[in-house]
Design goal:
CATH architecture of the largest domain: Orthogonal Bundle
Number of strands: 3
Oligomer: single chain
Helix content: 25-40%
CATH class of the largest domain: Mainly Alpha
Length: about 170
């Protein structure tokens, strides 16, 4: 990230938060780590509303097969227990890509991540392929969000200066 709210061509950019990363060897996670501004909506929702119990992990890691949340049955009560798949990282990468392309954060808070859509007007200077990739990465519903494999196969990722996937830097800061 960088200092301030906007990145310009003269900005000094610092990549941080690697100290907050978590190595996941085998499910379930018992903590959530990361920066709130790049947090996926399902993680932000869980952090705001979910209260862990002592007899089970606070968060579980889904297999990526579309299972996002499971229900815990206790008598007549059902309490939703958050289960996250690797698509939470696709969301975070989408936020970083948005910042790289616009110089702005797409969301200012966890509540905005949950309730609002990102502004598309700062992306007017980028190709349709870049906007399409971002839309797939910043899809709020993890069931419909691109997987990391989908992102790697996206046409924009393989773009070069000779095609239409380039950035118009002159228009970027207008």
């Amino acid at each position: 990230m960088c200092c301030g709210r906007e990145v310009t061509l003269e900005s000094t950019v610092k990549l941080i938060d690697f100290g907050l990363a978590k190595c996941l060897r085998a499910g379930p996670m018992s903590t959530v780590v990361g920066t709130p501004s790049v947090m996926a909506p399902e993680v932000a929702k869980a952090m705001i509303s979910y209260v862990p119990r002592h007899d089970r992990p606070a968060f579980a890691w889904g297999g990526g097969d579309g299972a996002i949340a499971g229900l815990v049955h206790e008598g007549n009560l059902e309490q939703e227990e958050p289960v996250f798949c690797p698509k939470v990282d696709v969301w975070s990468l989408g936020v970083v890509l948005y910042i790289c392309l616009t110089g702005k954060l797409p969301f200012q808070s966890q509540l905005e991540i949950i309730e609002l859509d990102y502004s598309r007007s700062p992306l007017n200077h980028v190709s349709a392929e870049a906007r399409e990739l971002l839309a797939g990465m910043l899809e709020k519903d993890p069931e419909h969000r691109l997987s990391i494999a989908d992102c790697l196969e996206h046409p924009w990722v393989d773009c070069s200066e000779g095609d239409a996937c380039t950035i118009d830097y002159e228009q970027m800061f207008r």
